[in-house]
Amino acid sequence: MPPKKGAAKGGGKGKAAATPAKGRGRGKKAEEPPSEAAADAPHPEAANGAAGSSPSSAGGAGSPPGVVHTTQTKVKAPALSKLNKAQKAMLSEFRSATGASDKVGLECLAEAQFDVEKAVDHFFTSGAADQAGSRGGRRAAEALYRRYKEPGEEHIGVDGVQRFCEDLGVEPADIVMLVISYHMGAAVMCEYSQEEFVSGLVKLGAETLARLRAKLPELRASLAKPDTFRAVYAFAYDFSREKGQKCVQLDSAVGMWRLLLESPHAGPNAWPLVEDWVGFLEARHANRAIAKDTWQQLLDFIRSVKPDFSNFDENSAWPYLLDEFVEHMREKRAAGATA
Q1: pLDDT at 311 over 60
Q2: How far apart are CA 279 and CA 95, in angstroms?
Q3: pLDDT in the model for residue 286
Q4: How far is 267 from 222, CA to CA, in rounded Å?
Q5: pLDDT digits (tens, 9 = 90+) for 98-154
């Protein structure tokens, strides 16, 4: 998605996110340590990197984006026969949430010092779920949400979105992030509520990083379909608005038009006159907002009017800016022809 105007790293907080899903109980600590190594088990957040560092860079050269490796010794999982009653209950809860085997469950629980919720998060964010062939569904998406959410807040903010992009191996300005945000139904740029993020991933059938990464080419290619492009284009208007504003500011609209209409993935929806349109607006419409009607009808204009305007009907009810643009371009071309 295009960088949000004025969005500084770690910047201001926006709307409150949806209430976290209830019933996601944290497993109680066992009364006895599961093994000698468990007391020294690394905290799962340490494996994911500090808030200000790049999780993807932690993997080192050759690591696929989103797969984090550490130099710490892997914690030895206790034998199943050595578990006490409380630990067996935790293993059962873990397996119920993930569908994983006893072996994988014991490894994740040992890594998380027998904290069930952290063990489940580790399973879904470390790549273990994909190796085990587990989809995970909503629980997997919730684990990813907790990985990126702002500390002490109930939403994913600018820093979390940046780390999400790094793990996916894409830039925030990659058009695929706009497509993902569309499927999430995100209300605000550079921010996802829990419900938007989790439900969006579940709807896409991409509840883990590996699955979402594998789906990126398909999401980009979907823009070549007229109906999908129109839906994403319509979504982009409200997505680009500043909070509390009814219209999109010109600089934000220009960024979105360039992203959408000049994209190599736009296919037949691309428009060769984007820079002419932008130049016209910056000269004639500077410091003014773009109305939603103008935004929506521009796409109809692009699809129905030829770039040379030979079939432009002056009696059609186009927004006045489009009428003025056609007049401007005709004058510009006429002047160029006589020069």
Answers
A1: yes
A2: 59
A3: 87
A4: 10
A5: 666 777 767 778 887 787 677 766 776 666 665 655 556 788 888 899 999 999 899
Question: 3-class SS at 236?
Answer: helix
pTM confidence score: 0.67
Angle, helix 274-284 to helix 250-261, in steps of 10 degrees? 170
- Sign (positive/negative) of CA torsion 9, 14, 20, 26? positive
Looking at the predicted structure, is the pLDDT value of residue 89 above 90?
no
Q: What is the DSSP string of 194-206?
A: HHHHHHHHHHHT-
Q: How many helices (H) and strands (E) does the chain have?
A: 15, 2
Within a 10 A sphere around the Cβ of 231, how many other Cβ atoms? 15
Q: Which domain holds residue 119?
A: 38-137
Which of these three, 84, 111, 137, is where a domain ends? 137
* Whether pLDDT at 285 is above 80: yes
Closest CA to 258 of 241, 237, 275: 275
How many domains would you assign to the chain?
3
Q: Place 291 in a pLDDT band, splitting at 50, 70 and 90.
A: very high
Strands (E), the chain: 155-156, 192-193
Interatomic CA distance for residues 70 and 77, integer angstroms: 17
What length does the chain have?
Answer: 339
CA distance 99 to 105: 9
Give SS3 for 54: coil
Contact 75, 37 (CB under 8 A): yes
Query: Are 116 and 173 contained in the same domain?
Result: no
Domain boundary among 112, 137, 162: 137
H-type helices in 28-174, by residue range? 44-48, 85-98, 102-111, 116-125, 128-131, 137-148, 158-168
Same domain, 111 and 124: yes
Q: Name the residue among 77, 72, 73, 70 with its Cα closest to residue 36.
A: 77
Whether residue 72 is contained in a domain is answered as: yes
What average pLDDT score do residues 193-204 get?
A: 95
Q: Is residue 277 part of a domain?
A: yes
